[in-house]
Each structure stands twice: as structure tokens, then as C-alpha cells.
Design goal:
Blueprint lengths: L17 E9 L4 H13 L4 E6 L2 E4 L10 E10 L3 H15 L13 E7 L4 E2 L4 E2 L8 H10 L11 H7 L6 E6 L2 E9 L9
Helix pairs in contact: 3-4
């Protein structure tokens, strides 16, 4: 479990450090390279550090099938940014990577989502925490389970149980060749809680 600041902020107090999980995805350009750069960029955000990052997992798109496969990962960070500040920072990284507005579930140069922010819940027009699509996204649950298998959502559901129950979706781990960042090889993964997306 990764506790967060669950006490109200007091005037003139330093923001408390919160653990948050971030989903990363890309299916345009060089997805592996773009996710590696995004993880490095996360670690350079103000008052934010990457503690762990999963391997990268490839899978067919969840939405329209007339687009390339996605590459996905999950990172665990600590941050003193508020949820809205963190969201703004992630949107800034997406734009810096060249993301443009496209159709719903369309192709993305870079997609960054806040999965959880400590043990807080939030439902606003711009941000819902925990992310409402977690239970349906094997490509998120598998890398999450890889780096933090004992995590539970604020409602008590475990990542391991959610992964077991997630809709079947083919995935494989992506391994970049050291001598050619544009080329990837892959290992198929069975649809189980051992790790897939």
C-alpha cells in the first residue's frame, strides 16, 4: 500500500508528499522511445520523483482498430503537486511530445493518466480519481501489478483481483534492442495475473 496525505492542508504548511500511479501510452511515432522519455520527464516535474516504472507492454487498441498497437506502462511517483497541478503538468508533457486532439480512443503520440492519487477520491469535470476505466484495462492492470502487486484502491479492491477479472485482451512485453531504438522484440504473456496488459 502507498499512503498519501489524507489530512487537510493548513495555511502556510508545506504540501505533503503523495504516492500516485501514472499510466503511460503511445501508438504513434516511436512509442517505446516516447514512453522512456516521458518517464524521464515525469522525474523532472517540480517536487516529483519516479520511484518505479514497469516494463512496456504492447496490445491492440481498445477503441477503433484502424490504428497501430499501443505500448503501455505504469509508473509510481511521489509528488507534492496537487491533483489539478499534476494533471496540468501531465497535459504539458503530452503537448510537448506533440499530442493533438483526436477522436475518442484514437491514436496518440503520448497519453498520460492519473490512476490514483494517494487514497484520495475526486470527481470533477476535468479529473476523476481513481481513474474510472481501471477495471476494464488489462493493459493498465498488468504493468501496475508488475511494480505494485499489493496495491488496493480506496474502495478495497486489489490490483491483483482486478487483473484476474479484467476482460481478456492480448498483450506482450516489449523489449527495445539496445543498438536500434526503433526496433522492438516481444514476449507473449498469458492472460493471467502474472503480468499482462
Amino acid at each position: 500500500m502507498f499512503p498519501a496525505s489524507d489530512t487537510p492542508r493548513q495555511p502556510n504548511r508545506e504540501p505533503e508528499t503523495v504516492h500516485a500511479f501514472i499510466a503511460l501510452g503511445s501508438n504513434l511515432g516511436q512509442p517505446v522511445k516516447q514512453l522512456e522519455q516521458a518517464i524521464s520527464a515525469l522525474d523532472q516535474l517540480p517536487d516529483t520523483h519516479v520511484l518505479r516504472a514497469s516494463q512496456m507492454y504492447a496490445n491492440p487498441p481498445m477503441g477503433p482498430q484502424d490504428q497501430p498497437d499501443y505500448v503501455n506502462a505504469v509508473a509510481l511517483i511521489t509528488t507534492r503537486l496537487s491533483p489539478s497541478e499534476l494533471l496540468g503538468a501531465l497535459k504539458g508533457l503530452e503537448q510537448a511530445a506533440g499530442r493533438l486532439s483526436t477522436r475518442v480512443w484514437g491514436a496518440r503520440v503520448l497519453d498520460l493518466d492519473i490512476l490514483t492519487y494517494g487514497d484520495q477520491t475526486l470527481n470533477s469535470p476535468t479529473l476523476t480519481i481513481p481513474h474510472p476505466g481501471i477495471a476494464d484495462r488489462r493493459f493498465v492492470l498488468a504493468p501496475w501489478h508488475e511494480i505494485a502487486p499489493d496495491t488496493r484502491l480506496v474502495d478495497g479492491r486489489s490490483i491483483a483481483d482486478l487483473l484476474d477479472a479484467a476482460p481478456d485482451h492480448p498483450v506482450h512485453i516489449v523489449l527495445p534492442h539496445r543498438d536500434s531504438p526503433e526496433t522492438v522484440s516481444s514476449h507473449p504473456i498469458a492472460s493471467s495475473a502474472q503480468g499482462e496488459t
